[in-house]
Amino acid sequence: MTAALALAAVVTTATAGCVTQTAPSASAPMSSARPPREGAPAAVGPADWPTYHHDNARTGVAAGLAPLGTLHQAWQTRLDGAVYGQPLVIGETVIAATEHDTVYALAAADGHVLWSASLGTPMDGTQLPCGNIDPLGITGTPAYDSSTGLVFVVAETQGGRHTLVGVDLASGAVLLRRALPPPKGEESAHQQRAALTVLDGWVYVAYGGLFGDCGHYIGSVVAAPTTGTGPLRSYAVPTTREGGIWAPGGGVVHHGRLLYAVGNGESTQDYDHSDSVLALTPALTLADSFSPAQWIADNADDLDLGSMSPAVAGEQVLAVGKSGVGYLLDGARLGGIGGQLTSMPLCRAFGATAVAGSTVYLPCTDRTAAVDVDPAGGMRLRWKAPVPADGSPVLGGGAVWVTDTDHGVLYALDPATGAPRQHISVGPLPHFASPTLSGAHAYLGTTTGVITIAVR
What we know:
This protein has one helix at 295-301; strands spanning 11-15, 18-22, 61-62, 72-78, 88-90, 93-97, 102-107, 113-118, 143-145, 150-157, 161-168, 174-179, 190-191, 197-199, 202-209, 220-225, 233-236, 252-254, 257-262, 276-280, 286-291, 311-313, 316-320, 325-330, 336-337, 342-345, 354-356, 359-362, 369-373, 379-384, 394-396, 399-404, 409-413, 420-425, 436-438, 441-445, 449-454. By secondary structure, the protein is mainly beta. It has one domain: Quinoprotein alcohol dehydrogenase-like superfamily (Methanol Dehydrogenase, Chain A, 8 Propeller). A hairpin with a 2-residue loop joins β5 and β6. The longest helix is centred in the middle third of the chain and has 7 residues, at 295-301.
């Protein structure tokens, strides 16, 4: 366990279209520049899983996973809190972050702790205006940056503060720490659930609200340089309240732009870019957007698109949310209000997808579904699984891997039919649990730590 380097600096904050600098308060975390490190950072290999659903397109595909055999538990490690984000795998190291604001490195072979870094005291649930995670610490999936060798996380700590932290993969040293508040609203009313995205020297962090939609929060994305210093970038959804960006998959990178799903906004009169898919430039300016024609009714009835990260299949984008309607969009021109290529009832979807070619595997709340996307602009429902698997699916070893979060089961489904090929009990799981695939193992965050399943 290591302490942060305390280097005095100026804290920078930003709002959409405007960057300001203010002196840090006594209680605000300081911005710390990353000092030189010894040795080259670990490169990302073909069997690694450095970010949510494997890559910035969030395909969820592990091409080199061993073929499916008979599932059995390899190891289970109890940590100091629940692991809501996907574990990362870099080489022989598994990274897991807990709601107790601790980052762990575990040995992939047997799960023993290589190092741990405590980042502060998480928020006690009694100190929050609402919510369903207690304590509330690190919720969003971390991201590894091979250029700096840092694992980036956002920790929520006492006082409702959000801090971007860079932890050295090799040693566990905290080499970067920077206050990263959302640009608008009350900081303690925001929750950071969306996976982090590292892209071209920047780390992108999205904010939504707490379960229950209480308080003054406004969905936003904030970006900081991976070096730790310099002005921030930010975008805030132009709504008076809500419009959270909270889907677990976070930003989906497509042709250099970041796609985010946005929840319902407060307005039911003036369009506020809520209930939408937004395309943001790396500078966090709005490049394009889509919202259903019935966005007013969706906002009024909490039936928005914000519950599932967009899925990219070829040059098209599939958006599905709480209403159960799937919207197929042109990735080059999202279409504005009501401008989809086509739409059809699919399912209520919460979480993130896996994509193989033109097939999208959906995290439906009743059971996983497969949808075939036609390059000409159509789609069809191929199957719905016969088992109650409702987590965010991933692909590898000739199977679709998905959890039943209510009953603590991991399934391996046939990609062509959805029929279960194998299943195994894994114990209590957090919401939207999604396995990480690497080598011959599936790694899952649980309510008490990490469990690893051998796939053969």
